[in-house]
Amino acid sequence: MTVYQNIRTGRHCTFVLHVHLVFVTKYRHKVFKDAHLTRMEEIMRAVCEDFECELVEFNGENNHVHLLVNFPPKVALSKLVNSLKGVSSRRLRQEYPELVQHYWRAQRLWSGSYFAGSAGGAPLSIVKQYIEQQNRPV
Description:
By secondary structure, the chain is α+β, with helices and mostly antiparallel strands. The chain has one domain: Alpha-Beta Plaits (2-Layer Sandwich). It has three helices and six strands, in the order E-E-E-H-E-E-H-E-H. The chain has helices at 34-50, 77-95, 124-132; strands spanning 8-9, 14-15, 18-24, 54-60, 64-70, 115-118. The strands form two sheets. It has a four-stranded antiparallel sheet with strand order 4-5-3-6, with helices on both faces. A hairpin with a 4-residue loop joins strand 1 and strand 2 (14-15). The N and C termini lie far apart (43 Å). The relative contact order is 0.24. The model has no long low-confidence stretch (mean pLDDT 87).
């Protein structure tokens, strides 16, 4: 039997739900530098808090990011993803105007698609280690 750590409780439930999210930039443009990723983590952490979620791990490369999110069952993942992508795109465009060169066609930072994988099958330590080992651009 698996021993669950960090069990959360709601009004009517007890839960441990984690999702591994991957967002890629529009047209896979190589947009991000380390400063962008650092600020993006702060923004995404704040969005997660608004949804009563916890951003357990965050990392990325110049054209995509990985998130490991602990979320309550009342949160619709599609709404969380929409907010994470929308808020991060808007704030990064405001704070880093030079990113506009990557938006020559559509005023969007992110591709319309995303990956969401249940992290329940693999031990969280393995998923966390995988995300930690993603390379950040220099």
